[in-house]
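lol ok so funny story. i was supposed to be doing the assay writeup but got distracted and ended up predicting the structure for this chain instead. priorities right. anyway since i did it might as well share w the group, maybe its usefull for someone
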Amino acid sequence: MERLKGQVAIVTGGAQGLGEAIAHRLAREGCRAITIADIKVEKARETAEEITRATGAETLAVQVDVTNEEQVEEMTRETVRRFGALDLLVANAGILIAYDITEFPAEAWRRVIDVNLFGYFLCARAAARVMVNQRKGNIIQINSKSGKKGSFRNSAYSASKFGGIGLTQSIALDLAPYGIRVNAVCPGNLLDGTLWQESLYEQYARTQGLTKEEVRLKYEAQVPLGRGCTYEDVCNVVVFLASDEASYMTGQAINVTGGQEMR
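and the output, tada:
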């Protein structure tokens, strides 16, 4: 349908996993240009090349640590230099480190907050400065159901995501006079996703005293619709929020959780 025809987008954490899936979907929905921003620059380049081959969209791969102010600013400047505008920021970059509160290393806790919350602030601020001058734009944060409800032995991640919803609502108020919308998407457990496969099953098995197979069964059993969240489930909502169909929505945190979270 090309609901995003002609848009220029940045996707942070776009090299792999959910970010990669979002970037591909944005291109299929008509974005004319997409910046793939990731700390893993070689994978970002591969993803960018794949998108261009598959869709014809222009792409730019940049190495960005979202906690580094100058790198974030340069990512935004280079996007505008290359493509002439910035219509959409998808702030997807994030990390998860899980421990019981009595055992949580302070530096690890702070690192999660730095990437997930401070990094979101830096990216949103840089994008907003461009969008205010344009008097249009759209910022979407990839949040989590853990931004709505505390997460067992996962305090840093949950705290960062609760903060992200507050930041989303506050930025939405700041930018509404300029016609810029700011929303968050709160996925459920992406049980077949890269983060779970490469990290979370192992972390949750360690912190909860379960096998990896038991972890999956536990999290599936918590979902009223009986399955994990998929990349496509999340992409569907991202595209809706980025389109004119959501033109009267700002400051929202939309659950994509199969009924697991309803607030």
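The mean pLDDT is 97. The longest strand covers residues 180-187.
back to the writeup now i swear
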